[in-house]
Every structure is written in structure tokens, then in C-alpha cells.
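Lecture notes, part 5. Sequence design as translation. It can be helpful to think of inverse folding as translation between two languages: the language of shapes and the language of residues. The source text, in C-alpha cells, appears below.
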């Protein structure tokens, strides 16, 4: 039986970037006269801007003001935060191990494509994945299943032969909506109760790598 295909979330899963995304949103919102505290934004990181911005402001992302805020958020993130980001523990080692074990790997993220390229360089995984889908490939971001469904098409496997590795409840929900099981990681800052519905939960990529042989990836216990 062939190895399970793997769909990777990136932010919070392979790169320790969730706080940075939240700060970039807070700064962009403040610049436009909208004081939204970090504590309000941080739990929403993992869903796309098309979901987050209406949640905290009531603005549609494609509205004139929404476009300006989203543009500044991207600029703040790429200029102020991306250069300082670090991988989550064991990110590159896990990806390399999965490749060696014959898993086909595709990124499935709510990030924009230009941000995704930089994030994959941060974690040392650029060139290691077989494909990538971003918010540019889907009508709706997580927790809707669109991005996961797009990644499945790139993966070339049915949902039952794939697993999502992510760090937020939005990953679990999006994958579930596409019929894909999830392995959740705690390194994104969420508690186990928040990640209910996942097939298994590990601390970070390094922890999953240590327990690979007992994980759903090896046992196919999906």
C-alpha cells in the first residue's frame, strides 16, 4: 500500500509565525483608526483575511477600506516580521523524513502565494514539497474546505488516502469538511480541547517525527 499523502499547513505548523501575523493585523488596523487588541486577533490566526477582517471590523476584505488594511497587513508582515521568523522545532527534519518514507507532500495554507514562498524558505522546506496551494487557489479560506480540496487535487489522491498536518481548529475543520483526517500540533498555541476532532495531537514537528512509527502516518489509522 502506498504511503499516505500529506497536506501541510505552514503558519504555526512549520513556521513559528502566528503571533507575527496577529501583530501585523493589529498594526494595520490601528493605522486605519481601528483599535483592535492583539488578544482579539490572535485566536483568529489560521483563518484567512477574508474571514478575519469581517470578524474584527465588519469590513469585507474586498471593500475599499478592507483592501487598504489587507495591503498594509501584508507589508507589515513581510517587512517587519518575516525576516525574523524561525521554524517550529523539527520542521525541516520532519518534511525530509516524510519524503524519504515515500509520502507525497503538498502545502495547504491560507497564506498568500508570495508570503508562502518566504515562509517555506524560513523553515528550509522550499523545494522539498511536491506542490502548494494558497488562498490564491481557493474562493474561501479556512475553515472552509476549499484550500484542502485544491491541495487534494494537486496531491492526486482521494481524501481517504491523505492526512492534514496543522496547528489550529480551522485546519481540523477545513480538513474534515474535505473528508481528510488531521494530525494536530500544539506549537501554534492551541490547547488540546481546541483541536478536538484530530486523529492525533503532538507537540510540534519534532515530536511527531519521534513518534512517526506509532502515528497515523505510519499506521494508516485514519
Amino acid at each position: 500500500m502506498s504511503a499516505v499523502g500529506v497536506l501541510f499547513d505552514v503558519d504555526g505548523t512549520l513556521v513559528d509565525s502566528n503571533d507575527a501575523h496577529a501583530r501585523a493585523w493589529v498594526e494595520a488596523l490601528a493605522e486605519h483608526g481601528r483599535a483592535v487588541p492583539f488578544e482579539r486577533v490572535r485566536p483568529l490566526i489560521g483563518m484567512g483575511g477574508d474571514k478575519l477582517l469581517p470578524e474584527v471590523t465588519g469590513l469585507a476584505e474586498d471593500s475599499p477600506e478592507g483592501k487598504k488594511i489587507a495591503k498594509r497587513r501584508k507589508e507589515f508582515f513581510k517587512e517587519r516580521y518575516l525576516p525574523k521568523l524561525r521554524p517550529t522545532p523539527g520542521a525541516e527534519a520532519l518534511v525530509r523524513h516524510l519524503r524519504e518514507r515515500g509520502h507525497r507532500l503538498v502545502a495547504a495554507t491560507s497564506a498568500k502565494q508570495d508570503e508562502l514562498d518566504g515562509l517555506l524558505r524560513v523553515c528550509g522546506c522550499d523545494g522539498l514539497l511536491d506542490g502548494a496551494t494558497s488562498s490564491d487557489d481557493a474562493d474561501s479560506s479556512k475553515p472552509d474546505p476549499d484550500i484542502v480540496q485544491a491541495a487534494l487535487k494537486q496531491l492526486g489522491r482521494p481524501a481517504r488516502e491523505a492526512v492534514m498536518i496543522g496547528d489550529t481548529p480551522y485546519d481540523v475543520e477545513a480538513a474534515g469538511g474535505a473528508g481528510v483526517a488531521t494530525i494536530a500540533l500544539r506549537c501554534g498555541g492551541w490547547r488540546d480541547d481546541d483541536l478536538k476532532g484530530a486523529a492525533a495531537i503532538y507537540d510540534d514537528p519534532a515530536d511527531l517525527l519521534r513518534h512517526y512509527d506509532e502515528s497515523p502516518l505510519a499506521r494508516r489509522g485514519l
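The translated text above is only one of many valid answers, since several sequences can fold into similar shapes. The chain is about 40% helix and 10% strand.
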